[in-house]
Amino acid sequence: MREVTDFHDYELLDATDGERLERWGDIILIRPDPQIIWRTHRKSSLWNDAHARYVRSSSGGGHWERYRSVPDVWSIGWQGLTFNLKPMGFKHTGLFPEQAVNWRLMGDIIRSSDRPLKVLNLFGYTGAATLACAAAGACVTHVDAAKGMVLWAKDNAAASGLADRPIRWLVDDCVKFVKREIRRGNRYDGIVMDPPSYGRGPNGEVWRLEEQLYELLQLCDQLLSDDARFLVLNSYTTGLSPSIMKYLLSTVIGGSRGGSVDCDEIGLPVTSMGMALPCGNTALWIK
């Protein structure tokens, strides 16, 4: 497992009985996590000092119970970047801190390149990967189907002092965008994608990961330049094991382009336990 070790503004304090106790800057939150199936003693005293807790509803969805004052928006930092956070529906805050291992990896590749790299961020969400690549010197195209997420990502760029960097912000269906870029003859030196298990595009297009991922990877192979350096594929879908993701990437990308392909879990260390909580898988093609 690749663990995050350099995110000082975020901390997974404790984890038990289906819940995480997390510190986001100065804000303490309790959020559900279906992977936490153990019921150990709550070791952190901060369970009783949480600002808010996300409670699932038996009929679906859920709501935030606020115990202390929580700002509408607050910020945390990582390696000079600033991310604006807020409690969202379906338990999210607008950031997946476990992805910091990939932000650092891509930044290192970009900085070590002997030329400027063009990077495409598909399903870009609130832009953390976009900002990490832009800060390292890449020209980035950020694509997400949700206008609100793209606006949030632009706010994060401004907060990070990156508003003037060469970033294209696009509200679009990712698959349709990739097909148009192939027809236009545009190519990228790096691609990062974090596709959802299920989603809808801006015009109601339906996305199902298991049904469409292989085709998307084939399209992305056409979109990579002859001297491309990386492709990063993230998944939170339990049906896609690291072995399956590695096989997909090896078959579609690695076979014709050389380089190396690997896949592993990414995770967050749990302060109270001395162990790490798995938080999804990342498949990497690097050349």
The side-by-side strand order for the widest beta sheet comes to 1-16-17-15-12-9-10-11
Instruction: Provide the low-confidence segments as ranges.
Output: none
Treating each run of at least 4 consecutive H or I residues as one helix, how many helices? 6
Fraction in helix? 25-40%
Name the overall outline: globular
Give an account of the 3D structure.
- The chain is 26% helix and 33% strand.
- It is built from 6 helices and 17 strands.
- The strands form 4 sheets. The protein has an 8-stranded mixed β-sheet. Strands 2-3-4-5-6 form a 5-stranded mixed β-sheet, with no helix packed on it. It has a two-stranded antiparallel sheet with strand order 7-8.
- A hairpin with a 2-residue loop joins strand 2 and strand 3.
- Helix 1 runs parallel beside helix 2 and helix 4 runs parallel beside helix 5.
